[in-house]
Amino acid sequence: MDKQSELRQNKVFVNNMVESAIRIGLLVVLLVFTYDIIKPFIIPVLWGAIIAIALLPVTNWLEPRLGGRRGLAAGLVVLLGILILMSPFLTVSGSVYDGVTHIADALQEGNVAIPRPTQKVADIPLIGNKLFEVWQLFATNMERAITKFLPEIKTVVGTLATILSSAAASFAMFIIALMISGGFMAKSDTVSQTLQVVAVRTVGEQAEEWTTMIAATIRSVLVGVIGVAFIQSMIIGTSFFVFGVPGAGILTLLVLILCIAQMPALLVVAPVMFYVYSTADTVPTVIFVIWSLIGGLSDNFLKPMLMGRGVDIPMPIILVGAIGGMLFSGIIGLFLGAVILSIWYELFILWLNKAPETKAALATIVSEEEASD
């Protein structure tokens, strides 16, 4: 009887295992198919959530001034954001189109005129002589120069085309993300309650504190990284326009991209410095160099001032998370990396704060055991 009961139990156990394996397998298949379906929307929705968190205070400020119509307030904020995005994009696109058209017409008519380099170019340490020779060749014999450097020119043109197509795709994605953020802001109360319920189910008592921390961290990164990058690009870009640097609009955009990516603006500014040095007088060159250096180094004092405001997380934690996240998963990693490191920091502090309670509990157990002995 015992043997029959054991066999029956084994059979039931095997049946349960097979049934559980089938259910788990079907669930995995469902999750894989679901991920494939929503994968194209993950990045725009994440950006929409980030933009909504950043712009929600503006929507809250507009709502009572529009008679409590939250949807209208959110729509106006989104419309303003689209206009702000489109203005520089259309300006830069027009500048690039005009430049390409002008170059193409000049090449067809044979009226390409490049100013010859001055002796100051040859006096530049290390690279002066080589730069002088290449510049002189393009200024005196354009056809021969193009033939000689055709592979390099093709590489540069291909790279620029890739950058421009990527910028256009990113622009379209940000427009979609702004529209999604409008929906989040219009229904912010419902979305907030839903997220709080999910957060409580996921992390328990710390849910409300952590959701507030995540929102504050995203705003901190937005101001401390993207805001500072915008200020830097405006300072440096203004110097480009004031000194009449060719292609000032697209150069300013490149500076903005580099600053957001936490790369030195000197990568763009240094060649422009050489250009100004070779074409302008000494005093304007010195003013331009000082102006550009102030813009390039301004993040050293702007980030400590702006990043970490309103957040209990130390600024180095947020900065390291933002830079590491960007290196791992692009621009959106600026926010995800900062949020993830902030959560780990909070977990670490929570673990440290629990240590005295653990020690007290152990001491109580030991004293009770000693008393019972």
TrEMBL record:
Statement: the UniProt record of this protein carries the keyword Cell membrane: yes
Subcellular localization, as worded in the UniProt entry: Cell membrane
Topology of this chain in the membrane: Multi-pass membrane protein
Transmembrane helix among keywords: yes
A matching Pfam family: AI-2E_transport
Transmembrane region(s): 12-35, 41-59, 71-90, 156-180, 221-242, 248-267, 274-297, 317-345
Major location category of this protein: membrane
Keywords attached to this entry: Cell membrane, Membrane, Transmembrane, Transmembrane helix, Transport
Gene Ontology CC annotations of this record: plasma membrane
Similarity comment: family membership: Belongs to the autoinducer-2 exporter (AI-2E) (TC 2.A.86) family.
Name of the protein in question: Predicted PurR-regulated permease PerM
Species annotation: Vibrio xiamenensis
Species classification: Bacteria, Pseudomonadati, Pseudomonadota, Gammaproteobacteria, Vibrionales
